[in-house]
Amino acid sequence: QVQLVESGGGLVQPGGSLRLSCAASGGIFSSYTMGWYRQAPGKQRELVVVITSGGRANYADSMKGRFTVSRDNAKNTVYLQMNSLKPEDTAVYSCNAQHAYFNAITYWGQGTQVTVSS
Predict the structure, then answer these.
(1) Secondary structure of 14-26 in the HEC alphabet?
(2) What pLDDT does 12 receive?
(3) Side by side, which strands form the sheet with 77-82?
(4) Partners of residue 82 on adjacent β-strands
(5) Whether pLDDT at 86 is above 90
(6) pLDDT higher than 90, residue 1
(7) Alpha carbon of 111 to those of 3, 56, 67, 80, 89: distances in Å?
(8) Which of 25, 57, 93, 110 is most buried, with most CB under 10 Å away?
(9) Non-local CB neighbours of 60 within 8 Å, separated by 6+ positions
(10) What CA–CA distance (Å, rounded) separates 28 from 33?
(11) Looking at residue 102, what is its pLDDT?
(12) Measured between alpha carbons, how far is 76 from 81 in angstroms, rounded to an integer?
């Protein structure tokens, strides 16, 4: 069983930056592809980015350029650096771990709220 705990969300003004973290425990972190997803009020959850254990990242087209994902396998942590934030980035951001070989094994964190507002 893998536990995921997100942190780093909060209120930020338009144009600002936030860095989200997702700390994993209870599993072999390097066995998992990690992902960030977000869900805005009244909308479906959408992919932000996934990153393989080797560091290869795949961004949703709309997220390219402002968001940067990274992972530290030694610290069992994945990060999401978000720059030039816009009000439409307001959402609950959740971390996901999907086993690289057994894709049905997947875990979710509780999510962290990001609010972009002046």
Answers:
(1) CCCCEEEEEEEEC
(2) 98
(3) 3-7, 18-25, 77-82, 67-72
(4) 18, 67
(5) yes
(6) no
(7) 12, 23, 17, 13, 14
(8) 93
(9) 46, 47, 48, 49
(10) 11
(11) 87
(12) 17
Q: Strand, helix or coil at 30?
A: helix
Tokens standing for residue 83? 């720059």
Residue among 48, 114, 59, 43 nearest 85 (CA):
114
Beta carbons of 32 and 102 less than 8 angstroms apart: no
DSSP state for residue 118 in the 8-state scheme: -
What pLDDT is recorded for position 35? 97
Q: Is the dihedral of CA 41, 44, 45, 49 positive or negative?
A: negative
DSSP one-letter string for 48-112 = EEEE-TT--EEE-GGGTTTEEEEEETTTTEEEEEE-S--GGG-EEEEEEEEESS-TT-EEE---E
Q: Are 18 and 8 in contact (CB under 8 A)?
A: yes
